[in-house]
Amino acid sequence: MPGKLKVKIVAGRHLPVMDRASDLTDAFVDVKFGNTTFKTDVYPKSLNPQWNSEWFKFEVDDEDLQDEPLQITVLDHDTYSANDAIGKVYIDIDPLLCSEAATVISGWLPIYDTIHGIRGEINVLVKVDFFNDLNRFRQSSCGVKFFCTTSIPRCYRAVMVHGFVEELVVNEDPEYQWIDRIRTPRASNEARQRLIFLMSGELQRKIGLKVLEMGGNAVVGYLQCFDLEGESGLVVRAIGTACTLEKISTLTSASATHPSNSSPSKDMKEPVFGEEAPGIPLSSGPPTPLRVQTFSSFSPSKSYSRQSSSSDTELSLTPKTVRIYLSPSSPALVSDSSPLPSAHLPRHLRPGMSSRSTTPPPLHVSQSDTAMLRKSMSFSEELLLAASGMGSGGSAGKEAGPLKALLRQQTQSALEQREYPFFTLTSFPPGFLLHVGGVVSARSVKLLDRIHNPDEPETRDAWWEEIRQEIKSHAKALGCHAVLGYSESTSICEEVCILSASGTAAILGSRFVQDGPLDTDYRLSRQPLVFSTGAERVEGDMGSSASLGFEEVAPPGCGFCHIPYDELNIPFPAQLTYCYYCRRFKVPDVLFTTIDLPTEANVTGKGCLIQARLCRTKKKAQGEGNATAISNLLPFLEYELHTQLMNKLKLRGMNSLFGLRIQISVGETMLLGLASATGVYLTALPSPGRIQIAGKTPSDITYEQHISNMQKKINDTIAKNKELYEVNPPEVVEEMIGSPIPEPRQRSRLLRSHSESSDEVTELDLSHGKKDAFVLEIDDTDAVEDIHALLTDSPMPPGFYSCNTEIMPGIQNWTSAIQMFTSVRVFRLNNANLTNQGLNKIFSDLCENLLKSLYFKLRSMIPCCLCHLNFTVAVPEDELIQVAVTAVAMSFYKDQTLENGRQSGDKTLIKAITENDEQLQFNLELNAESSSSNPLSSTKGLSDVSGSHPSARAPPVDYSSFADRCSSWIEQLRLKAHTIRRGSVKTTSSLEKASPLPEGRSRSLQSNRSYSGSSVTVVKMTPLSFIPGAKITKYLGIINMFFIRETSSLREEGGVSGFLHTFIAEVFAMVRAHVAALGGNALVSYSMKECVFMENPNKNQAQSLINVSGDAVIFVRESELEATSVQPQSAATRETSNGGDGT
Amino acid sequence: MSVELDVFVGNTTIMDKEVYQLWLNGYTVNDAVKVRIEGGIMEECEASAEVLLSDTMDQYRTFQMCERLLHHPAKLANQLLFQIPPDRQAMLIERYYAFDDAFVREVLGKKLSKGTKKDLDDVSAKTGIMLKSCRRQFDNFKRVFKVVEELKGPLVENIRQHFLLPDQLARDYAAIVFFANNRFETGKKKLQYLTFHDFAFCAGQLINHWTVGAVDNMMDDMDVDLDKEFLQDLKDLKILITDKDLLDQHKSLVCTALRGKTNVFNEMEANFKNLSRSLVNIAAKLINAKDVRDFFIDLVEKFIEPCRSDKWTSIDVNLYLIHYTNSVHILDTFKHHGVWNRYMGVIKSCILRMYHE
Q1: DSSP 8-state code for residue B339
Q2: What's the maximum distance between 2 C-alpha atoms anywhere in chain B?
Q3: For chain B, which end, N or C, has fewer CB atoms within 10 Å of the first or last residue's CB respectively?
């Protein structure tokens, strides 16, 4: 009997009128936990009852404490007939079971009814007297902390990162039970809500057990999802990263042992990981040029992952298993009916199957083939060969080379242990991430069948097992031993289910990852960061020597960009160059990742949201046929999404994507693909080549004209974008300036390669010149569409930025004004006979219009950035497309953005600049801004602008910090001068003009928010893991809530929009109330993981399900905390010192 | 091809003041969009009509959802559904309870009943205020009326506390409630020249001096009804006109004081008895509810109009009333000084306010 749950019902308010005669209510409360129920007295004739009950005590097992929710039901007493339920409150008491989280739940919680919504509030007090069970065979895992945050939580320090934990629970969906035919919708909804609460409790407990066995004490990046499989059941699954966390306040002793360790930073922008001693040199072992079986002992979780490979036979129940993984350059599709892991092997060898980035594969003689690929026979031939499932053996036979052997070796070693070196984290402590390989993803189409035995969810487990294996092998093919930013998702339509998983292949530092799962001596694992001074590249060996930690010499600002795979045996064709930052290691020309931008990364300019949207029609089909049709469509979908991403990235003059999330949604007659990512210009990577348009048969003049017009448009857009996002890499100044005026292609290409060779005297990679242009052929209609799509992406209104990652590169000086929001749109396609192009346009417009609406709604927050923009698409019905967006709008101080842009533009130069320099620079900027008559600034600006003339360019002789500094100043000046001179440039000019007013507005907004005095605690919500201008002092526990709302009076509730609007507002209200009851004032890492909406307007009915989660926290405003120095400054200095350490 | 569903929900509820005003004024969504477009917001924010429509619909929906709470403003502060900063809440309430002078002038003193509500379309046609807005304003009056009708204590304070209204608005509502409760006639043609603020001023005077609460704050009675005892006592003032000696004495005292101080002295002297009779008769009749209703029309017909036809200035009226009031105290046989002062104080300020030259 290790736990005693105590509940006191204090009072109610705003109750609904239940007795029409008296206009009052005779309310009492039912308190239920497990199978025990208590009742309060009836408080007669009041809408604001004061029960003030005794303490109801439940003596329960800790297992039950974890699984069961506390269920509070408010009823209206009726002498003659059955008591009417007013509504219910479910309380997850998990936060009370952890000593470091909340201690009491106390406050007003909304009483919720699935038919009527919120009906008044109830004030409760909940406490737990808990005796921890130390029994080795216990089934509970109380005390394990859960975090939705996908980074190490702010007030904790990662002692060790153990690795991947997953669990999955299945049950019958009450909605589909026979009893549902005779019970009321309310009863059915409540059964469902309760079941899901129970299942997530159980899931959490089981995951907790795994964590404890691994020796961890927390799960970070906890991601729980529901699969509503309809007839075949309900699946609740979760993944996360097991860690051992330590509260930062306990750091003092640790820091004593490491004198170089700085005290926890007050800077909230970056996660705080103490325990850093970067300067301590350790002798590095002999360089290991090749990574061989590097991760044989990498993940310690081997004994905990479920053994389900034996379920191959079951798998064959599904007729076709198709796995696709996204390669940035071309799609790969393999379908095979016998999904034995070994069968996957050869696929990695085929060029163009690579999971990594870049330009078209050299298989095709000319790069200009890219656009053709979709149509060309040669392409499909090759693809089909593999796709037709003629046996992977066949395609394997075609492959050759030494790589195969290596890969096989690796696969074998991987087979020996069934575990996943996966991490759901997206940002990491310094020293954790060494190199990034690229995005790996896998998809599989399955036919759902009834889950026969809920206690043995083997089928579903096996499905995921399969996908994870695939991901793992993809990572291996990229020479990586780990997958970061890992996530899994499903899309279900009728009985077809697409399972997807994606992540970023990477090589990790050894510091946080350790071998022995039960190692209790954490000190051992805390190896200081190791630097060897040799110029040679030292491969991080992740073998058994993990605890010794061989690390890179590479500076942290660019190290993660360096290729992890062997240069000579690249698993796929890629254009490698020497790092533009350190000039020592090879980097790819484009980098796609699913993680957040590392805080220490060197970035030029700002980032922006890049989306690829695609819609493909498909014939209605049933069962196997349907699954086959979908599998056949998937690779094309992925390929085109990728092409779109690539084009849009180049159009913005950027070279990398972070936070890439590709969602494929399946409907009866169409497939939707939506890829979102944040584009960034990484200083370390080469500048992207231009987009060039080539007509294949340049026959007549009008056609030529058309092409050149388009080319001009594209060039203009690129130039505009570069200006907007301040993408001005110093090395390639001349190119950027050249873009507004289209030059003859050959000439520019010549010039380019020439200039490069002069830049990188000896290090020039000859292959580099080849990659220059990204050619789009507009021969076929598809390409025309593509180009149109490219150009129709309307620019953001001035003052707005957007990204889908945690941090917006280039903006740091946030105000405290934040506004989290959810927006949902459902679009009906009335015309059934739409072409793919037509559909695409509709879908793309839908997303664009939604964004435009958001910009308009949030215009009072300008200058502002929409962060963590998370789009979810669904096809709820035949002709409906649903798009849901959740994001947070954050204002920032305009006056400092330029400075920040400069800082991120080149951090190395900043560290060299003294205080005086800063001052001077500021003055200079002011001058340039205040008067165009200033001869210095205007001439400088002029010369730079006129640099479009190729000869005007003065190539930098060397890269000393002085030169950099100058060029960066010039950049600034140029930008300013630009603005002044070309007042007609709409975006910039209005941006400048607009600055004083919106700032005032945003300030007033801010002051509004800080104003308090109402009786309701203000609870902030944000999908980010931090709150700008504030410090999170305590994590109170995870919030994970599931609600169902149904109505049979849709019209009366304001139609579908009114219904959903109310429901979402209610969900927000309930989340806020629960956070406040835990004693918190904010919910971070908020996400709406499920938002299902179904309607039947003819019957005047609608139903909606929403699942939300996040971490309840207490934050303290930095200004209240203490009078510290201005926060952005400290951020800057920190960053600077980071950059300094690197070189 | 149509947008079937379109919602935006912020953690902090976003409300646009301009759209709120359009909603309050009773514009339909489409009309509101038109007004916004004419306002030039599209150029300002680079928005399309589509975006505006979506935004306007969304805002309208939000306001509709909030309306329920605005009916009980105290609830707005401790409800959980919408997170609205306190200053925004205050703005929402104040604007929701704001009314048009033209509208209130039409219904002032009418019974706040269903019958009156049915006639609102006439009011709407006459004033040019949209019917929807008229209904809201009417319902506001009725709601406030219903709540404070039953409450004890000072009327203005009650309104302010229950509806969280700013002081001036609370006073105006007190006037409306007071007029509705006593059913003062304000619609007659002869009263058309008076504005709502004239009446509100008079109502304030009456509330402050003629109700029970005016004399004794501790009293259990309410502010909405006139002090019956006082009305009873007013009958005693009749002596001023029934007693011939007293009347003559009063006249001579007033005339002595006024002589040479005004251009209309002759008219004053000639009309004294008529005017005095009118004022005292009004006082004496106030005990009848029906005559209370005619209070303002009586003041206009029996006092203001005669004075105006004789071209008195406000200064003249003021002077006259001062001396008329004060001279009574010199009359030795007159005993009802307290009642006289209480009566004349209000009458004087009301007449002065209502006397438009």
Answers
A1: H
A2: 91
A3: C
Query: CA geometry: angle at A727 spanning A726 and A733, to 5°?
Result: 115
Give the C-alpha separation, A140 to A210, whole Å.
10
Q: Chain A residue closest to B49 (CA)?
A: A853
Predicted TM-score (pTM) of this structure: 0.76
Task: Give the whole-angstrom CA distance, residue A902 versus residue A921.
Answer: 11
Q: What letter would DSSP give residue A772?
A: S
CA gap B121, B98 in Å, rounded: 19
The partner residue sitting opposite A824, judged by closest CB among B5, B55, B62, is B5
Mean pLDDT of residues grouped by 10 in chain A (1143 residues)? Answer: 85 89 89 92 92 91 85 89 89 84 89 93 90 64 86 85 88 79 86 90 90 88 88 88 80 37 37 36 36 33 34 32 37 34 33 34 32 31 29 32 42 47 86 85 86 68 89 86 90 88 86 44 33 33 34 64 74 75 82 88 86 87 86 89 87 89 89 92 82 64 74 80 74 39 33 31 33 53 62 77 85 86 90 76 88 90 89 87 92 63 38 35 35 37 37 36 39 40 34 36 35 66 90 90 92 90 94 93 91 87 93 86 46 38 34
Amino acid at A354: S
Collapsed DSSP state (helix, strand, coil) of residue A50: strand
**Cβ distance A1021 to A1086 under 8 Å?**
yes
Helices A986-994 and A961-981, axial angle in degrees (round to 10): 90
Only one residue has tokens 């319902």, namely: B139
Q: Would you call A13 helix, strand, or coil by DSSP?
A: strand
CA B103 – CA B138 distance, rounded (Å): 9
How many Å separate Cα B352 from the centre of its chain? Answer: 17
Strand A774-777 versus strand A691-694 pairing type: parallel
- Helix and strand tally (H, E) in chain A? 26, 33
At CA A387, angle to CA A384 and CA A388, rounded to 5? 80
Best residue in B2, B3, B9 for a mutation probing chain A (most A CBs within 10 Å): B9
Chain B CB contacts of A858 below 8 Å: 14
A1068/B82 Cα distance (integer angstroms) = 9
The residue of chain A nearest to residue B54, with distances taken between CA atoms, is A853
* Tokens encoding B51: 């975006």
> Contacts of residue A1073 in chain B, CB cutoff 8 Å?
80
CB atoms within 10 A of CB A735: 23
